[in-house]
Design goal:
Length: about 375
């Protein structure tokens, strides 16, 4: 990969016009993880990432089979769900995949119409439109399968003013760590099997009305050992971005293959959460023990001025400080971005987080892919899975 940043004019506004408006999406409503021990996971998200207690459902609220903790930070809402008995499908999901994302919920104005429009275009139904009520009003939800066992739920909440969804009560806690500065979900990435990327790209185009606005082939994304391909899908207003990765043939096993082996199927690889001040956010996370991929070699930081070109003028961050925190830098025609990746957050080498700060750049850090993947490969080598 050349060191110099290639100028790309994404022309996003124009591209997004190509998206279909049969499925208007207001934003991400929440992301739900099925986990082995939701109580302990919730503590991790609060302590390590500064999430706030939001809502709860469990035995105390009359939920006999499942327990869920809802955590919030600015616009990001994460739900952690565990089973309370061995028969629960949540347990089967965790047994097969380990802890992982089950639901990417999308906020809509009309859940029935969202279900109807997507299923008539070929989506497989997960949940027929369902009305749920409590003293705070009512919501409508419906769901479809995407890749693997992952689902999209459509959440219509215009007639609801409770803390989360019917059945949940406000979660009051005496333990309330400070927020770390995480603001919103920037993008969510799926890993799919060999030959399945283009199938899912077509699915998002036809079933959800998304557009493919950026593609990377294995010639662009490779290291000495491994390769992958990626296509980025977006909805019409650009609020929802789903890159889709597929492994590519190379000398050794790619991180995507490692994921597919350990997740035992396709699923969400990472979620990128945005901050306005990555130095402060990452300092917080490191202080709390969040583990990140090790930094690229010195040469990577020496080359930043060349990589950023004219954007160096607007860069206020000190390169030495970025290096100290292992933060990566990339640029495109419109600006630069700062990003960093955690190590997998559960024992299986599957799901991880990205923290991103956009300073005008609209890309995904393509200039960092090589440095990033070499870093992941050093971790894979330690796990014996390269
Ligand atoms: Fe990403």
């Amino acid at each position: 990969m050349s060191k110099k940043v290639e100028s790309v004019n994404y022309g996003l506004e124009k591209i997004f016009e190509g998206a279909q408006d049969f499925l208007p999406l207001l934003g991400t409503d929440y992301v739900e993880f099925y986990v082995g021990n939701a109580k302990q996971s919730a503590h991790y998200y609060k302590t390590a990432y500064g999430f706030q207690s939001c809502a709860y459902k469990g035995l105390e609220t009359g939920s006999k089979d499942t327990v869920s903790y809802v955590l919030k930070q600015d616009k990001i809402r994460i739900v952690l769900t565990s089973a309370l008995n061995s028969e629960s499908p949540i347990n089967k999901h965790v047994t097969k995949h380990g802890d992982g994302v089950k639901v990417v919920a999308l906020w809509v104005d009309d859940a029935r119409k969202s279900f109807e429009e997507t299923t008539k275009r070929g989506a497989k139904a997960f949940l027929e439109p369902t009305v749920e009520k409590d003293e705070h009003g009512e919501i409508v939800k419906a769901g479809i399968y995407t890749y693997g066992e992952t689902v999209h739920l459509f959440i219509e909440r215009k007639n609801y003013n409770g803390p989360f969804l019917p059945g949940f009560q406000k979660w009051e806690s005496n333990y309330n760590p400070e927020p770390s500065g995480l603001k919103y979900i920037d993008h969510m990435v799926g890993n799919v099997d060999w030959g399945r990327m283009d199938v899912m790209v077509k699915w998002y185009e036809e079933v959800m009305g998304f557009v493919n606005f950026l593609s990377f082939d294995d010639k662009q994304i490779h290291t000495e050992y491994s390769a992958l391909m990626s296509k980025v899908m977006s909805n019409g207003n650009g609020r929802i971005k789903f890159p889709i990765n597929e492994p590519a043939k190379a000398a050794k096993k790619s991180q995507i293959e490692e994921y597919l082996d350990f997740y035992e199927g396709e699923g969400v690889q990472h979620i990128a959460m945005a901050t306005d001040d990555i130095i402060s956010t990452i300092s917080y996370l490191k202080e709390k023990g969040v583990e990140f991929l090790p930094p690229p070699p010195q040469a990577y930081y020496d080359e930043i001025p060349e990589r950023l070109g004219s954007h160096m003028d607007m860069m206020s961050e000190d390169i030495k400080e970025l290096q100290k925190l292992s933060i990566l830098v990339d640029a495109d025609e419109e600006g630069y971005l700062l990003q960093i990746f955690t190590k997998p957050i559960q024992d299986r080498p599957t799901f991880f987080f990205e923290i991103i700060q956009r300073m005008g750049a609209k890309g995904f850090g393509a200039g960092n892919f090589k440095a990033l993947f070499e870093s992941i490969e050093r971790e894979q080598a330690l796990r014996g899975t390269l």
